[in-house]
Amino acid sequence: MDQIAADEAPAATPAGPDQGGRALWWRAIDLRVGVVPIPLFLLILALAAFFVRRGSVASDILMNIALLSAGGFACAELGKRLPLIRNIGAAAIFATFIPSFLVYAHLLPTPVVGSITSFTKSSNFLYLFISAIIVGSILGMDRRVLVGGFLKIFVPLFVGSILAAAVGCAVGMALGLGLDHTLFKIVVPIMAGGVGEGALPLSIGYAAISHQPQGAVFAEVLPAVMLGSLTAIIFAGGLNALGKRRPDLTGEGRLQMGEEDVVAAADETRETRLPVETIAAAVVLAVSLYLAGSAGQMLTGFPAPVALLFLTVLLKLGRLLPPELEQGAHAVYRFFRTAVTYPLLFAIGVAMTPWDKLVAAFNAPTLITIVATVATLMATGYGLARFLKMYPIDVAIVNACHSGQGGTGDVAILSAANRMSLMPFSQIATRIGGAITVTLALIAFRALGG
What we know:
The protein is mostly helical. Helix content is 75%, strand content 1%.
């Protein structure tokens, strides 16, 4: 089949001087903003302006593939080209927070904002991405150390959470914020698992116990969630830069020393020769596993991404999938990591990241407390890793996801760290760690009388 395909492929025509304008055009196509050729990038901008002027910016997948690709990769390219900060995750930070500011300042046309927001919230775009990343990364792992990695990661998460809470509260009290405010309005929201799974249930619980308006309480806890996530993104980018100078401290997306990426250890070029049907089957597999997790959530209340994670682990450990399908899943993972990360972050910035809530917490005592909490959480993971025979940088990055903005924060943190393969472990930190944090916090809040 490969030979037939090669025989049928058109022969490449060398770009010689006689081609004139065509050669110049081809060179223009080779210049890109991210993955988008510059001529297409300019065409998207022109078309967006046309549809805005006509008042007809659809909220469908066609319009948003174009809008999010242009916006996401433009912001990421800007971050990648700035000196100094490009090494600490500026691409992910810019792709998330520039659109948030543009919305706040009314610099993005209202029809474009409406289209992106509607698409992002109605399409489950985020969970399609998470499904593809989790399934592909797990199926590409070394089966021999998969279980050990999942069991070991709870140790730095547990110890890190306790120390981060203690240090955060101590710093907040020293700066005059008070124990109750520091613990329940800053430290706990940071580690609560994001907005939908953390800040929202926290605010509902706090409001019910203290008999306050839920909206007012939500506005109090949301800034800590967002600034904690931003801090984790910056620190993760810094750890990625450290890993480039000290490769002995990182597994480049692997947690345990001696662990190998099964697909990478094989000939990766085989992925480019996989039948299209196999890659399509891998996409359907990822989506089906997520839907199975969603069904489980309806029946048991267990978070769908975590159920998806454990279902995928069972498939991997039981050798229930043929190697070719595992390779197909890994190919899908690589596609989403390369082509979808920055468009998704742009969508998150527009639809889910209110700029005014972010800047509301920009006062010195709150900022210092947030930084101290996140730094302690990550430093604990870094310090314990050697004792567990794990890579310090990668463990610290997983711990960072415990202070992220839910699934959106995981994507941004791992993107800044260039370690998207850690998504399965980050989901444990975010979902399970967040759920435990919220439960214990509400118990303590009630015991202290609100």
